[in-house]
Write a structure and sequence with these properties.
By secondary structure, the chain is an alpha/beta fold. 56% of the residues lie in helices and 14% in strands. It is built from 15 helices and 8 strands.
């Protein structure tokens, strides 16, 4: 099976490298930026294409990996092309926010359609390619089934999870909170470290083992079990000291700190209730 990509950024380059490693042939890349297509094609030893109909005509699986706001225009472009054997071609997009419905015009003229969103933060294509071995792809159920798509991911060794098309934006919101806002939270932490007197050049390296220990805890524990710190211990005095120091030195961080604290308490509500019941039982027995 020959795989093609419309859009030649970090995602499509990493996917191309990954699928090639899995034994699939990469037909090539098409992009509004010819240099991007040339670079992605060079890395995957495929072809940079200037003709969209040639790329689609010579491929069986066509990934649309453009920015989300360009997908509709790409669908329109494909719809206008005189492509033969449309029913043998699978066109899919990799967007986390758009549902399968955006490809409906292609389905109506005979193409097979699907969507598959990789749950991964893409940066360096080569690092992403290695990580893709462990990645889950979010897919939507279709009336005709997803056998061709699931067979493909089974061949790659990837797991899939089904997404409700009516709640896909909510799914994407969750992914953004995890991958985007985790970075924002780290940045806030770095700013507090710097304000405390730690050298800015040391902060990221010094805190990396702490961050990695949190991730490692989450690999085999749920969030409640992995959590550590004063709120988990019920140490209200320490939390109060944090709030007092933020008020004095970084009042702009107070809202974020208290919001995160409240969410942490909410997460531990059941656990704290059980602890309270145990204490009450002990008191009654004394």
């Amino acid at each position: 099976m020959k795989i093609a990509f419309i859009g030649a950024g970090k995602v499509s380059t990493a996917l191309g490298l990954y699928f090639k490693d899995k034994g699939f042939e990469i037909q090539g890349y098409y992009s509004r930026n010819p240099k991007s297509a040339e670079k992605a094609a060079q890395l995957t030893r495929s072809c940079p294409c200037t003709s969209l109909d040639t790329l689609i005509g010579n491929s069986q699986m066509i990934w649309i990996t453009t920015p989300d706001d360009q997908i509709k225009n790409v669908v329109q472009q494909i719809s206008n092309l005189p492509i033969l054997d449309k029913n043998k071609k699978l066109v899919l997009h990799a967007s986390g926010v758009h549902s399968l419905a955006i490809l409906q015009p292609l389905k109506e003229i005979g193409y097979q359609t699907a969507c598959a969103h990789p749950l991964l933060a893409f940066n360096d294509p080569f690092l992403a390619k290695e990580k893709l071995n462990e990645v889950w792809f979010g897919i939507e159920k279709s009336k005709n089934g997803n056998k061709r798509l699931t067979d493909f991911f089974n061949a790659c060794g990837n797991k899939t999870l089904y997404i409700d098309s009516n709640k896909k934006v909510l799914y994407h919101t969750a992914a953004c909170v995890l991958s985007n806002y985790l970075v924002t939270l780290l940045n806030a932490s770095y700013e507090i470290f710097e304000k405390s007197g730690v050298e800015k050049s040391d902060i990221q390296k010094a805190t990396l083992p702490l961050l990695e220990s949190v991730i490692n805890n989450l690999k085999d524990k749920d969030c409640k079990e992995a959590l550590t710190g004063p709120i988990k211990r019920g140490d209200q005095k320490t939390v109060k000291m944090h709030i007092e120091r933020l008020k004095a030195f970084m009042p702009e961080m107070l809202e974020l700190y208290t919001l995160m604290g409240k969410e942490t308490e909410k997460m531990l509500e059941d656990e704290n209730q059980k602890k309270l019941e145990i204490r009450n039982q002990k008191s009654e027995g004394e």
